[in-house]
What does this fold into?
Amino acid sequence: MPVSPHGGGASASRVFVLSKEGRPLMPCHPARARELLRKGRAVVARQIPFVIRLKDRARAESAVDGVQLRIDPGSKGTGLALTDEKPETDEHGGTITVRRGLISVELLHRGEQIRACMQQRAGYRRRRRAANCRYRAPRSRNRTVQAGWLPASLRHRVDTTFSLANRLGRYAPVTEIHMERAAFGTRPTSNGTLAGTDARAHLRIKWNNACAYCDITGVPLNIEHLTPRSRGGSSRISNLVLACVPCNKAKGTKPVETFLAHRPDRLARVLEQVEAPLHDAAAMNATCRQLWDALGAFGIPMQAWSARLTKTNRDAMQLGKTHTLDALSIGPLDHENGDAIVRFPGQVLVARATGRGSYARTTPDRYGFPRLRRARTKQHFGYVTGDLVRACVPTGKWAGTWTGRVSVRARGQHSPATPMGRFNVSHRNLELLQRGDGYGYSTRPESPASASRKSS
It folds into this structure.
């Protein structure tokens, strides 16, 4: 009797399962995992992501079909989805392929934070060269760069995606990797610098030799950055305007949205000429190939697919535009034949990269001079900042049991983070659940028709 696929929709995210020797098995339904734990046939191997380990079954005794890992890289976030594909028979007797989403993970990068810290350090160095203190000559620019070198903010995107994919491969039997590879254009458009024309001449024509902020003419005009370079702005022609000296000084290092907050009409006119920044496109072009080469170290069959195919599948299934749903839609589906995505996880595990602390031995002041020394010991009373703990508070305002990531102090009064806020508790009332791994975890619901949460 032919079997027709079910209507699909959101379903419970599956639970990772390991054999008794620690090898990955097929993920199971949460209800099945609760039953195994209740009967004593399994134990909890990891809290986040939740992993159980069977006590009475080896991998050789289990049927393991394998799952596919689908990755949708992004500049600010990356979507990863574990899926399985099975052939089924439709009502006409034909064979179709149904794809089911088992687990979805959204990885949030901290590349912008790393970039801001690097810029701050560079600012400290520039100031020390210019200030009345020990002179430090700038280093020469003749240093060689190794093949495949990336800045720290971009290397972070590759390393964290590779690390999370490797972790999913330890908890699930991944047999294939599907990744979206797209090239993002960075050519200047009609708003870019014209060939044979310098920036000032182009801006004079564009702004009619008038100040962009007050329309004054016949006075000296400066080239002004809408988004200041100190706040990450570039020198692209779309980020430049002409401004008179008083307006230029009044704006200073303020963003244009702050400077013209009381003049919304003028702000709208100025922002009309701003193009989308190229930071995200450049980051994707620089890291996509590096990530592909890094994933090849797994020794698993890999396939690359275009963004157009992902969009076609997502539109055909009427799914929203998020990194996780894009990851679920990567790879070919014959929609004319009846192939479909019949299920996606209702809950997405959000892994935000938080780092493992700083290597700095001192805390600088606003000018870059050492203000105080930092403790060389990160572990206090058996806990490190970022550990997942359970706090059992016997009395007081915070009486009860709380679970969250902890910030440690040398005196032993640690501070767990909870949905209700932070509070101080003695290390004696804490129980370690999981060592910190450089990520902060949370969940969010996945809605197929939701507005886009995908920034880049």
Summary: The CA atoms of residues 397 and 432 lie 22 Å apart.
